[in-house]
Design brief:
- The protein is mostly helical.
- It contains ten helices and no strands.
Length: about 180
């Protein structure tokens, strides 16, 4: 994806990403073409290619934006990481469902595995929600462990149709963590 601060480019990107989401509601991702995406918009094909290189690039942009919002919430929320994760998932039910329907949830995990370590390295430790948990321990393995564990729970929630309350899942995890933590 090409980055731009131009308002017209931002509007075009939004129209394109919205079109892909709309198409994914009725069609499998593998069946969707760039031509179909463009036909769902008021844009020309060249505008698509001025902003994206492929439909995969559009999907990556959607996932990247969602993860950026998640990271922003991690840095600004006074709630703990678990609360932020479940609030993120609750707000992004549609995206998670569409990724699951198309066997693409792993793309979210791959993006998290690249973004969160970068975030951890670049963030001031006083605002980093992971710094206290990790302390002086090796961050790469612990971040991978935490991402894998929590997101596997999220994937199970999505697989079950997202009918369970995110609050209830969070409480179950917190209770479990209390049980395995030495007193």
């Amino acid at each position: 994806m090409k980055r731009s601060t131009n308002p017209s480019a931002i509007r075009s990107k939004k129209e394109i990403t919205d079109a892909l989401i709309k198409l994914m509601q009725d069609h499998s991702y593998s069946e969707i073409s760039v031509k179909q995406i463009v036909l769902e918009t008021t844009l020309e094909r060249k505008t698509f290619y001025n902003n994206f290189s492929s439909k995969d690039d559009v999907l990556d942009s959607i996932i990247t934006d969602a993860i950026r919002n998640y990271v922003e919430a991690l840095t600004t929320s006074s709630d703990g990481p678990l609360s932020v994760i479940f609030e993120f998932c609750d707000r992004n039910r549609e995206l998670l469902g569409l990724l699951h329907k198309n066997n693409l949830l792993h793309l979210l995990l791959l993006k998290l595995n690249s973004v969160i370590p970068e975030f951890n390295q670049s963030m001031d430790t006083s605002h980093n929600p992971f710094a206290q948990m990790i302390g002086s321990l090796e961050p790469d393995y612990l971040i991978a462990f935490n991402i894998g564990a929590i997101w596997n729970v999220i994937f199970k929630w999505v697989d079950r149709g997202m009918t369970d309350s995110p609050y209830k899942i969070k409480k179950t995890l917190e209770e479990y963590l209390k049980r395995i933590t030495p007193q």
